[in-house]
Amino acid sequence: LLLLTAALGATAAACCPAPCICDNLRAHVLCLNRSLMAIPDTIPELTKKLDLRGNSFMVIPAGAFLATPYLTHLDLQRCKVERLEEGAFRGLGRLVYLNLASNNIALLYQESLDGLSSLQQLILEGNRIEEIQPGAFGHLGSLTVLDLRANALVYLPDMVFQGLQVLRWLRLSHNVLHVLGSEAFAALPALRRLSLDHNELQALPGEALARLDGATRLDLGHNPITYVAEEALAMASLRHLFLDHASLQDVAPDAFARSPQLHMLDLRENQLQGLPPLAGAGGLARVSLDGNPLLCSCLLRPFHKWLARARVQAEGACAAPPALRGRSLNSLKLPEMRCGRLRPPPSPSTSPEQPRAAGSTQCPRGCVCSPDFHHGSCENRDLQEIPRDFPGDTHLLDLRRNPFRTVPPDAFPGLKELVSLHLQSCSIRVLHPGALRGLESLVYLYLTDNHLSTLAAAAFEGAPQLAYLDLDHNAFTRVPAGAFQLLPNLISLHLQHNTIGELAEGDLAGARGLRWLYLAGNAIRHIARAALAPTKMLEKLQLEGNHLSEVPTAALQGLPALSELKLSQNPIKHMGHSVFLPVASSLQHLYLDNMGLEQISPHAFTGLGPKIRSLYLESNKMSNIPDMRNFTGLEILNLQDVPFHCDCQLLPLRRWIDKLNLRVGATCVSPAEARGLKVKLSTTFQTCPGWGQGEAGETNPNKTKAASKPSKKKRSGKSPARGFSKSRA
């Protein structure tokens, strides 16, 4: 044994790359500051920790670490990495720590982080990431810490963190975040701490934060927030709120009434001259007001009385009147807090509506321009025409909630560097040809909540980089045919909640790079056989909430990359043979819930098998489902609210469910003695012929597999965030 160990050690040493240091005893390899241009291909296979800091890789190619499958820690800091190719980390199923800080990564592709099913910490601090593609983190189901500090993020779209089911700390500090989608944090059920400090948020993003029911700490310091409005924060579990070093001038009395667990409120270094009694904040124990110009006059008496009544400790000192300057709040007596001839502080309650002076910075009248963060904003200014003369280096332009009604040709002159354009809720009926001319860097265009009913291809002339187009909640009755001819880089198209009645051939002509197509909440009854033919790279097709009466099998031909199909809430009553066969080789997530589905053919799922990771069949009317024994890769299966008749015909399903390491929610509705019981717990099957055969001592292939490869259990977060996930319970 000693000779064998020595021989193996010698072999491992021989495999150590020449410029590196290998510690075979601890399975560590150090290649620090070696000017390497490529990942060494002679790293010992059994290496667990690999330190490659300070090299010059530029690109991490697909399969770069396939030769080291036992890695648990990988450090790639300061390696001049600009691009992570799709599949770069494939094969690293044991990796728990990945550090990519201080590189030059600008974009995360959807598959860039594929294969990291066990990853717990991902550090992307100090890169150049401007906006995140939805789905980029969809494969990181075990991640608990995501560090995106010190990047160039300007906007967070809805569901951008989908798949991060166990994430506990999200670090977004030191970016230039200006706008958050209302559903940006909707897919983070386990999040406990959110760091949004040192950004460019001008208002408290209450709607987005309301999705974080379990978060206990929120950092919003160092943002130019001037006012906290009524019931602005509805976070049921929040205990620690940091709003220090902002621009706060006023806080509404019931600003925190919907955050009843709030324990500590940090308001240091703002512009507050006082506070009202904070209604509804019954759990508050400490308020920090150090560094504010507190006016300790009679106007502060209600707050002072509330502090004593609620037993809240306050930290802060008076700035005026002169007789009380420097006195701590806790030392004040009510008779000392006089008004006399003191002028009351100016009411800051209207300050959010008043435009800040732009000073010498070029900026349209009534708008706010931030030269440091390259932002321009004229939100909700009741403007009739789109303003001009924004700084030429503007990256994000927020024009939401203005009644423009039309976007004329050449509406945005001189904005060649503009990346994100927000025109939501602007009553727009017409986007004229040439409206976007000159926006050669535009990637994100948001036209949600307008009155658009048609679009011409010429409307997108001059914006060839446009990748994300949001047309949700407009007046389209059909997809604007040919409108995407000039958008070769279009990746994501949102047309949800319009009144589109069909998807016809030619509607998507030119959209050859489209990956995500969102058509939920329309009135689609028919999809032509060739309607999706131009979108050969399509990965997600969301058709929930339409009027389809059958699975559009013919239209699914020629979609070799389709991995997610949502047909929920369509009136599909019967499902015939082989309806998913055209996409059987790629489909991973299938949504068939809430359809009133009454019958599924025994061969409906022909072709589907190990690749399926999640299947949603809840809230339907069928009493049995086809044989799914070859669905060995399932991580989520939801059979809740399906009226199963637990007789001997259901025995094969009962046996299959028993072998799964899943909670599926299948419940008996009949016969009477089984009503309300879980299918796998019902005793009605014990009278069935063959019940005793194989029930005792039967080998469970799924559980054996899970036991031998525990890392597979951590993959549940790769699936969309709902339903029942893998569990021993």
TrEMBL record:
Domain of life from the UniProt record: Eukaryota
Keyword field contains Transferase: no
Pfam family, one: LRRCT
Domain LRRNT: from-to ranges: 15-49, 362-396
Residue intervals of the LRRCT domain: 292-340, 643-689
Alphabetized SUPFAM superfamilies for the sequence: L domain-like
Keyword check for Chloroplast: no
Main localization, broad class: secreted
UniProt region (Disordered), positions on chain: 337-359, 690-729
Signal peptide positions on this chain: 1-22
Gene Ontology CC entries for this record: extracellular matrix; extracellular space
Keywords carried by this UniProt record: Disulfide bond, Extracellular matrix, Glycoprotein, Leucine-rich repeat, Repeat, Secreted, Signal
Compartment(s) of residence: Secreted, Extracellular space, Extracellular matrix
Quaternary assembly: Associates with collagen and binds to collagen fibrils.
Function (record text): Potential negative modulator of chondrocyte differentiation. Inhibits collagen fibrillogenesis in vitro. May influence chondrocyte's differentiation by acting on its cellular collagenous microenvironment.
Family: Belongs to the small leucine-rich proteoglycan (SLRP) family. SLRP class IV subfamily.
Name of the protein described by the UniProt record: Chondroadherin-like protein
Natural source organism: Daphoenositta chrysoptera (varied sittella)
Lineage, broadest ranks: Eukaryota, Metazoa, Chordata, Craniata, Vertebrata
Gene name as annotated: Chadl
